[in-house]
Amino acid sequence: MKVLMRISFLSLFVLAIFLLAPFGASAAPIYAPFEVSGWIPYWRTATGTADVLPHLNQLIEVNPFVYTLKSDGTFLDNGSLDKEPWVSFIAEAKRQKVRIIPTIMTSNSELLHKILSNQKSRIALEDAITALVKENNFDGIDIDFEGKRAEDRDYFSTFLRGLYQRMGNKWVMCTIEARTPVADRYFGNTPPADASLYANDLKEINKYCDRVRVMAYDQQSIDLKLMAEAEAKGELYAPVADPAWVEKVITLMAKDISKKKIVIGVPTYGYEYNVTAYAGSFAYDLLWSFNPGYAIPIANSFGITPTRNAQGEIFFSYLPTTTPITAKPQFIQNSQNVAQAALTFANTTNVNQVFRMMTWGDASSVADKIALAKKLGVRGIAIFKLDGGQDPAIWNILPKR
User: Fold this and answer.
1) 135: exposed, middle or buried (Cβ count in 10 Å: 0-12, 13-18, 19+)
2) CB contact at 8 A, 253 and 179
3) Which of 122, 123, 125, 117 has the alpha carbon at shortest distance from 141?
4) CA 373 to CA 251: how far, in whole Å?
5) pLDDT tens digits, one per residue of 261-317
6) Taking the CB of residue 58, how many other CB atoms lie within 10 A of it?
């Protein structure tokens, strides 16, 4: 809490609200019982802003995903926030009391070490971010510094402390990587000696971030325990975000971060894999990410109806025309059946079979994450991404403020 207040019995309700937000944070709402926010990426500015604009009353915050950290410690505005359509969009968002909090991101480990480990450049970065926010009348900033080294843990915490002190009544949001329990991450294997060394000090992040958005997506094969359980049933398992995994992550991280600050990151995109069936198991080779509009035409071209898997995502598997079909009569172009046939063939002949799998989040999977967030008692969800390419039905399940 950035402002001290005298407490009286009659002011307890008001105080409870103010304890959850920076005092006087612009004209934006400072409290909602359940918060929904979302990132609009710079590479789809036009479609993203057009898609979100009619639905601002369903969001408490919008994050223009536009700024990247440059090698000299300044920022590159990839989205041109001072130009249309952002100018009109931001004006309307402020009119509807929606927080506008742009993201500054980088995944450059070397750059982060260089800047954060040097007191002069670290303080300069804190000052530059504060100036950026206040000069542009943003409601705050979202710090998305990924790929940090464990050795930079304390430097990052010091940076957050300095930034928090400078920002005054502006919001400091922190977007950080998910943390999988070590025993599950290395299930069936001996964890390496550095398995519990992390670049994020969660207790310090809890002190200096008004919200902590956990990137509970891009799961893939990080939870070997869940993967083993699925493959024991002969099921494919390389989800973008399995609710069972998300619950593990949030439960673990909530030991050090207040649930009233935790926001669950929710994906609206998917992944396509080359999958190789071996005797008794599958191996997944990630090809690329995609929006749902990319997957559906592929399914239609093969006469496949995508189904919902055990993780709540839409998926299907298929044999692309470029893949040699070792045992064509055994394969059925119908979602899980392709995987089952490939696994059976590998088990009986000891010959590997390659096929494709596509899995992605839709409105139903977003609804699952909302239900999970409420069950866990966290602050809300943050959607990555809202760019006009996600399942349009998402707007039917997001509540109005």
Assistant:
1) exposed
2) yes
3) 125
4) 11
5) 999 999 999 999 999 988 878 999 999 999 999 999 999 988 888 999 999 999 999
6) 17
Q: Which residue from 309, 304, 313, 358 is spatially nearest to 331, judged by alpha carbons?
A: 304
For the chain, what is the largest distance between any 2 Cα atoms, rounded to a whole number of angstroms?
Answer: 77
The dihedral over CA atoms of 187, 216, 252, 284, expressed in degrees to the nearest 10, equals: 0
Q: Tell me the whole-structure pTM to 2 decimals.
A: 0.90
Q: Which amino acid is at 264?
A: I
CA 59 and chain centroid, separation: 16
